[in-house]
Structure formats: C-alpha cells, structure tokens
Specification:
The chain is α+β, with helices and mostly antiparallel strands and 180 residues long. The chain is 29% helix and 27% strand. The chain has helices spanning 6-23, 25-29, 34-48, 129-142; strands spanning 55-58, 62-65, 68-71, 73-77, 95-99, 104-107, 117-123, 151-157, 169-175, 178-179. The protein has a six-stranded mixed β-sheet with strand order 1-6-7-8-9-10, sandwiched between helices. Strands 2-3 form a two-stranded antiparallel sheet. α1 (6-23) packs across α3 (34-48).
C-alpha cells in the first residue's frame, strides 16, 4: 500500500465526495437520513481509495479482541461527552462505557490490526449540536487509545435546501487524535 499520509487521505476523500455529490445529487436534494447518505457514499469511497484492499463497512459495531468478536465499546470521561449522550443512570460517573457505531470504517474485518479510517457524516440540515459534538468526540477517541484508527474524518454534506447555497461538503480530518 505504501505510505499513506493526511494529504493523500484528504485528496481521496475530496475526489470521492466530488464524485458522490455529482452522481447522487437527486438523493441529496431529498435530504434523506444520514444512514442513507453514508451507505450511498461507500462505492465512491471504494473507487477513490482503490489502494485499500480490506473492508469498507457502514454502521459496523464489532471488533476483534483476543480472537473474539465483541461489540465496539470504549470509555469516555464524562467531560468528553455532550450531556445529551450521557445515559441518565451514568450522569454522575467519571468514566462512561459506550458502544460505538461509526458511520463508515476502513478496516480488516478479521482483526484489529488494520484500523485505517473512520468517518462520521452529518447533513448540513442537521443542526443538533449534541450529535455533532458526539461525532467529534467519537473520532477523537477512535483515533487514539485501543481502537487506534490512523485517520478520522468528520464530513458535513449539503442536503435539501442547502445544496444551492452552501459548499457541497466540508471535511475535518483527524490523525492519531490530532485535528490536521
């Protein structure tokens, strides 16, 4: 695969999203659920990241630990999470265990050795601050510690009435826990 740096990841994401917006314009006009958008994005990502030969999955909630398939769970400090994403029964806990369901991941489905890229998507019409903050917190957690994805991307896609008035997409990239 050779060396993959943040510039190549950004270039591949940009190419995939340019193609996606062009080819899926009618879908984006309809302002569907974010799950529909991120699943429709995968074929475009596969073409743009043609060097990636392992899995690209949507809403994948499993991981391999010591040879066993388990839920993708990680710990957050209470202060790392928006209040809307702290379960009521854990409001006073310092550490909160949460299952994580990334929108799109590039990984080896048979091990945890090749966690390459994790993507969280938000529609421009979704203004829920807690959800956006939670996606950012997930990306920070997923690119550090035990899950150790090399890169993460927060992608905002223009949908509905925003298509004519906003940039078609925005990308924020994180590498090993640092926004770049």
């Amino acid at each position: 695969m050779g060396k993959v740096d943040k510039d190549l990841v950004r270039k591949c994401l940009t190419n995939a999203l340019n193609e996606f917006v062009k080819m899926e314009h009618k879908l984006l006009e309809q302002d569907p659920r974010e799950e529909a958008i991120s699943s429709a994005m995968i074929p475009h990502l596969k073409r743009s990241f043609s060097f990636w030969t392992l899995n690209i999955d949507h809403n994948y909630d499993k991981r391999i630990l010591q040879g066993a398939v388990v839920k993708k769970v990680t710990s957050f400090l209470r202060t790392e999470l928006p209040i809307g994403h702290i379960p009521n029964f854990q409001r006073n806990a310092e550490t909160i265990e949460k299952e994580i369901l990334p929108d799109i991941i590039f990984h080896d489905g048979m091990s945890s050795a090749n966690n390459f890229l994790v993507i969280e998507t938000k529609k421009s019409t979704n203004k829920n601050k807690d959800d956006r903050d939670y996606d950012i917190a997930k990306l920070e957690k997923l690119t550090t510690f035990d899950l150790a994805y090399n890169f993460g991307a927060f992608i905002e896609i223009s949908t509905g009435f925003h298509l004519a008035s906003k940039l078609p997409f925005l990308i924020r990239l994180i590498e090993k826990g640092t926004w770049v």
